[in-house]
Amino acid sequence: MKNYIVVLFALLVGVLSHAQIHDPVKWHTTVEKISDTEYDLVVTAKIEEGWHLYSQNVPDDGPIPTSFSFKNIANKIELVGGTTEGEGHEEFDNVFQTKIKYFENEAIFKQRVKILTQNKIELQEYLEFMVCDDTNCLPPTEVELLFVINPENNNAASAPTGVDFSKTIAKENQTKETTISAQTDLKQKVSLKQQAKKEEKQGLWALFILSFFAGFAALLTPCVFPMIPMTVSFFTKQSKTKAIGIRNAIIYGLSIIVLYVLLGTVVTTIFGADALNALSTNVWFNIIFFLLLIVFAISFLGAFEITLPSSWSTKVDAQADRGGFIGIIFMALALAIVSFSCTGPIVGTALVAAASQGGIAPIISMLGFSLAIALPFTLFAAFPGWLNSLPKSGGWLNTVKVVLGFLELALAFKFLSNADLVLQKHWLEREVFIAIWIAIFGTLALYLFGKIKLPHDSDDKRISVGRLSLALITLTFTIYMIPGLWGAPLKLISGFPPPMHYSESTYGVGYTKLAEGFLNAEQKLPSGAHLGPHDIISFHDYNTGMAYAKKVNKPVLLDFTGHACVNCRKMEENVWSDPEVLSVLKNDIVLISLYVDDKRPLPIEAQYTSETTGKKIKTIGNKWSDFQIKKYKANAQPYYVLLNHQGDNLNAYSAYNPDIAAYLAWLKEGVSNFEKQE
Q1: pLDDT tens, position by position, 346-405
Q2: Are 138 and 625 in contact (CB under 8 A)?
Q3: Cα–chain-centroid distance for residue 611?
Q4: Model confidence over 267-311: pLDDT tens digits?
């Protein structure tokens, strides 16, 4: 019984402590004396782990910037220059398609002022800011800061005097109305964290599998494949019994894996677990790897070979001839060195792909790559009789190498595209990128059909069935991309070309958006409605949307969102775009999207002071943010609630959840519960 009470108490504390009202930034001010007439007003933001605060300087179509303004400073101070800020982090944001600067853990802002009086000065500064984490964005928040400058008190003026203004942020009061149980809320939050971990694991598994196939492709190149019989011959001579042969083969395979994993470990150690991820959005990183992959591609196409110094292989071969355990290890190293002209470009590409994930991704990548190479060598060395089933070396090996060269060439332009997107130069817009890919894969199709010959190709006049099949697949893929020049979405290669809006013409001939736009133009929108994401009919006013829902007898999806909410855009682009989800949103519910960062002012008579926060509600965004806090005790976006016509919840709320199946199930559950109530 005692244990039961302890567990129950712990659960209760955990539930009650899990507040939905987020307050991740605490603000502090200090005054630093520079001279008798100049002072620095310093504002320090302490940011909770996992959250980030946006810079003062973000693009117009990006998130809400941090901004400062003074009131009633005439005859008191004169501003010297603008407000400066720390370095922070600057990355390319895939949602806003531009570089965005933000701060983590701490941000320091300074404004130099020149005093115009020797009397004690009290300055009020108004601060507006926005913060986000991986799943939530908070609405723009306003804070009032206070600075005290006392020129007569030199000690007080010259020594930083900290004032904690975290308390100036109004305390959120708990509302008596509880629409969602705390237990359900806790489960929802835990579920989101589990989902994030699951996605991370899935990403590493996907990288491992791709690297494994890359290793298998490297195995089928002229530098590696012919070495299998040579390796088997080596182990056959060195092993006195079959058991010893199997043991040596296993040691050989493990040595190959260790060598490549060691390479991945070195890369991770040198650059740091997270530095590679940060580099993936760096302009120079992308340009350098574009040039590097171009060199790799030209090498694979037969212009030249990339090799390591011959003295390396000579010395390693000498050590391999020693036999025994040491000899086997050097035999594995000899394989890596001799085959470098074929494996080097593939290894480099695999490590570049791992860079976009950071962490231990380079190690996982090399594990998958080396496993694909080590397995065949180990198995054939252990069981030499299997060699009879291997195809003979020939011109097909060079064909594999050339195909890899074309793939390297296509991938290179993805890195050039990344650099162009960051710089926003519009040199490599969507149409140009797709045209380049059509040219590359079209030429590859001609090569596979035997219409083009490269330096190391054999003189065979006939092509194999396998090569013909690959040629047809490549030709089909090339034809598939052609409508993309006129605006087709090309979902098969989504994520490789620049986004739709980064083009000469966002919607071109043949893109289904035109047909949808025509139909929507013919339809008469309900009064007060707008076309939202993916042409979903949406209301931006709660009462208007609820009235329409009653009229058409459909449940309501209440969407607390923001124009500058990153995770809201991710949900709309990646989850709402799913055909099944989109069908429910268009046909089975009424969408009410309430923008908490809408800056349009409310009429004077509609402005009021919030009962929950004590703040003055002046704008439409303030109104919907206050409504969310009051009714749902939450202030983060995206935040989704399914309601009946009385405004009661049909099921638990949903937040940022990239799992399409789970989000669809949540929608259908709410619709089903609504139908049962009717």
Answers
A1: 666 666 666 555 566 777 878 888 788 778 777 777 776 666 665 565 566 678 778 878
A2: no
A3: 38
A4: 666 655 444 444 555 677 778 778 877 887 888 787 766 555 555
Cα–Cα distance, 395 to 589 (Å, whole number): 60
pLDDT in tens, 204-255: 777 788 778 877 777 776 556 556 666 666 666 666 666 777 777 788 778 8
Are the beta carbons of 102 and 89 closer than 8 angstroms? yes
Rounded Cα distance between 120 and 547, Å, is 57
6 CB-near residues (< 8 Å, 6+ apart):
none
- CA distance between the termini of the chain: 44
Q: Which of 261, 301, 266 is nearest to 412 (CA)?
A: 301
Give the contacts of 197 (CB within 8 A, at least 6 positions apart). none
User: Secondary structure of the chain: what % helix, strand, coil (to 5)?
Assistant: 50, 15, 30
- Return the percentage of the chain with pLDDT > 90, whole number: 13
- Classify the phi-psi angles of 386: left when phi > 0, otherwise alpha if psi is within -120 to 50, otherwise beta: alpha
**Degrees to nearest 5, angle at CA 372 with 368 and 373:** 120
Which positions of the chain have pLDDT values less than 70?
Answer: 1-20, 60-61, 93-98, 135, 153-203, 221-242, 264, 267-282, 304-328, 330-360, 384-397, 422, 424, 456, 494-495, 499-501, 505-524, 564, 566
- CA 308 to CA 303: how far, in whole Å? 17
Within 10 angstroms of residue 462's Cβ, the number of other Cβ atoms is: 7
Looking up tokens 């580099």 gives 279
**Rounded to the nearest 5 degrees, what angle is found at the Cα of 665, between the Cα atoms of 659 and 666?**
90
Name the CA dihedral angle for 155, 157, 159, 161, rounded to a multiple of 10 degrees: 120
Helix axes 361-382, 242-271, angle to 10 degrees: 170
3-class DSSP assignment, residue 616 = strand
In this structure, what DSSP letter does residue 180 have?
Answer: S
Note whether 103 and 53 are within 8 A (CB).
yes
Residue 258 class from Cβ within 10 Å (0-12 exposed, 13-18 middle, 19+ buried)?
A: middle
Strand, helix or coil for residue 520? helix
Handedness of CA 656, 658, 664, 669 (dihedral sign): negative
What does the pLDDT read at residue 345?
Answer: 60
Amino acid 224 reads V
For tokens 């268009």, name the residue.
586
CA dihedral sign of residues 334, 339, 345, 351: negative
Q: Which domains does the chain have, with CATH numbers?
A: 17-166 (2.60.40.1250), 201-428 (no CATH), 528-677 (3.40.30.10)
For 114, the enclosing helix (H) or strand (E) is strand 106-115
Q: What confidence tens digit (pLDDT) does each residue in 123-167 have?
A: 888 888 888 877 677 777 888 888 888 877 644 433 333 333 333
**∠633-636-638 over CA atoms, to 5°?**
120
Measured between alpha carbons, how far is 173 from 339 in angstroms, rounded to an integer?
68
Residue 20 · residue 632 · CB < 8 Å: yes
Contact 64, 107 (CB under 8 A): no
Q: What is the pLDDT of residue 541?
A: 92
Phi-psi label, residue 102: left if phi above 0, alpha if psi -120 to 50, beta otherwise: beta
Decide: 575 and 658 in contact? Cβ < 8 Å. yes
Report helix, strand or coil for 642.
strand
What is the reported pTM?
A: 0.48
pLDDT at 473: 93
